[in-house]
Amino acid sequence: MNNLQQTDQIIRGWLEELRMDVLREMRDPLAVSEKTSRKDLVTNIDKSNEKKIVSFIRKFDPQAQILGEEGSGDDVKDMHGHVWIIDPLDGTLNFVKQRDNFAIMIALYIDGKGVLGYIMDVTSDIIYGGGPEIGVFTQSHELKAPANLTLREGLLGVSGPMLVHDCYNLQAIDEASSGVRILGSAGMEFIQVLTGKQNGYISHLMPWDFAAGKILSETLELLVTKVDGTPVDMLSSNDVLVSTRNTQKDILNMIR
Ligand code: 2AM
Ligand code: CA
Ligand code: CA
Ligand code: CA
């Protein structure tokens, strides 16, 4: 593999290429099917994006393992060596119902350490990408660490079902914040926290939902842990808390 700056440019090129395909293909009727429920959908574009990303990675980094949501990758059992974790289309329900507010996410871990992460907001054409060695950039500027806001000083992103079921005392936690937001895409929620528009996000997520966001968040001094503050497991589902340091402290004092 090339050095990180070159790899960064190559991944940004893949994302721009995928974006052009998605914008063209989404004008045609989508082939939509249900996975586990009518709220858990997959489309032809989730599947074709994943096949394309897997084929880019296979050519670029042939020894790597690939973990992808739609199963075109490998059956990854450990984080040794190069592991790419990809969500070919995040926010599929938004994509189907809104044709907006969805993302493509790509992450590279080497021996368990996050090296490069990318979240592309497709309709806005903004890539949030980079990692601990090179910083976090869009196409136009570098992101700085957001202000270390407390819970009451900012907006908290949450998963709708977790709020409705009051998991972890979430309704009281939301009351204590300035307000709650539900965007329906983990990638779009991570973007809000990275840019300081929300001071946190809580959701039940799979590895491909948080792999890229974790790398970018940690590069910007944000914390990504389980809701109880313990480390996330990169190969299983987790109830994830993304937040500023002060907001994490406030939330850990209120969870039950
Ligand atoms: P997805 O669109 O890639 O499936 C809101 O639903 C967020 O949670 C989205 O980022 C979605 O990712 C993710 N998510 C994870 N598991 C889900 C599930 N079982 N049903 C719907 N969304 C899920
Ligand atoms: Ca899905
Ligand atoms: Ca997802
Ligand atoms: Ca997805």
> Measured on Cα atoms, how large is the radius of gyration?
17 Å
Strand content: 25-35%
Tell me about the largest β-sheet.
6 strands, mixed
Apparent shape: globular
Number of self-contained structural domains: 2
What fold name stands as the CATH topology of the largest domain? Fructose-1,6-Bisphosphatase, Chain A, domain 1
Q: Class by helix and strand content?
A: alpha+beta
- Can you count the helices? 8
DSSP, total strands: 13
- CATH architectural label of the largest domain: 2-Layer Sandwich
The CATH H-level superfamily of the largest domain is: Fructose-1,6-Bisphosphatase, subunit A, domain 1
Mean pLDDT: 97
Question: What ligand species are in this complex?
Answer: adenosine-2'-monophosphate, calcium ion
Distance between the termini: 45 Å
Q: What is the element string, with H for helices and E for strands?
A: HEEHEEHEEEEEHHEHEHEEH
> What percent of the residues sit in helical stretches (DSSP H or I)?
25-40%
Q: In which order are the strands of the major sheet placed?
A: 3-4-5-6-7-8
Pick out the low-confidence regions.
Answer: none
**What is the C-level CATH assignment of the largest domain?**
Alpha Beta
